[in-house]
């Protein structure tokens, strides 16, 4: 039991140090990924701040590259601006039964000079482990939202 607590403390300490190590000056306003994918999180940083904007900037470019490659369009020139990333929170269903919450990501996708608004949603079911590791849980939720957003960006544009 003691070993688990030490390990958990180390993980939580490392997660707490992430914003210190990656200061705002170190984080670029625009994140460019391979294959011409560009993600702008400036509006999100103004609306939600860090670390949410940093997490989106970290996870969305790779998710977009994978989604467009899966749709048969690797290397597509895509520009994305993320305005909001909202993590749903709600009460439990009583008797310890988790209730589905809906996480949302809202932004604009521009491909070949044509811009489209996009709102992606992802269900989230709270778990007991989320409370002590809430920062890791929130990062995982943002990563899943990024995957959902990328999927709909690729699928919606190419009409498949």
Protein described:
With 160 residues, the chain is α+β, with helices and mostly antiparallel strands. Helix content is 44%, strand content 24%. The chain is built from 4 helices and 5 strands; from the N terminus they run H-E-E-H-H-E-E-E-H. The protein has a 5-stranded mixed β-sheet. Helix 3 packs parallel to helix 4 (134-158). 25% of the residues are buried. Mean pLDDT is 74; it is low at 1-6 and 17-33.
Q: Summarize the helix and strand pattern as letters.
A: HEEHHEEEH
Strand content: 15-25%
**Shape field:** globular
Radius of gyration (Å): 17 Å
Using DSSP, what is the number of strands?
A: 5
In brief, what are we looking at here?
It contains 4 helices and 5 strands, in the order αββααβββα.
What is the secondary structure topology, with strand pairs?
Elements: H1 2-21, E1 30-33, E2 37-40, H2 42-47, H3 52-70, E3 78-86, E4 101-111, E5 114-124, H4 134-158
Parallel strand pairs: 2-3
Antiparallel strand pairs: 1-2, 3-4, 4-5
Helix pairs in contact: 3-4
Using brief descriptors, characterize the structure shown.
4 helices, globular, 5 strands, alpha+beta, 160 residues, disordered N terminus
């Amino acid at each position: 039991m003691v070993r688990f607590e030490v390990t958990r403390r180390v993980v939580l300490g490392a997660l707490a140090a992430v914003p210190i190590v990656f200061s705002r000056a170190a984080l670029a306003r625009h994140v460019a990924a391979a294959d011409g994918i560009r993600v702008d999180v400036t509006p999100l940083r103004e609306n939600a701040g860090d670390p949410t904007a940093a997490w989106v900037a970290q996870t969305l470019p790779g998710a977009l590259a994978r989604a467009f490659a899966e749709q048969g369009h690797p290397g597509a020139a895509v520009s994305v601006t993320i305005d909001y990333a909202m993590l749903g929170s709600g009460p439990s269903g009583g008797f310890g039964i988790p209730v589905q919450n809906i996480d949302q990501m809202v932004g604009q996708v521009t491909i070949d000079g044509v811009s489209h608004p996009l709102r992606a949603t992802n269900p989230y079911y709270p778990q007991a482990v989320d409370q002590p590791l809430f920062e890791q849980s929130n990062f995982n939720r943002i990563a899943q939202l990024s995957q959902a957003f990328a999927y709909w960006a690729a699928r919606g544009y190419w009409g498949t």
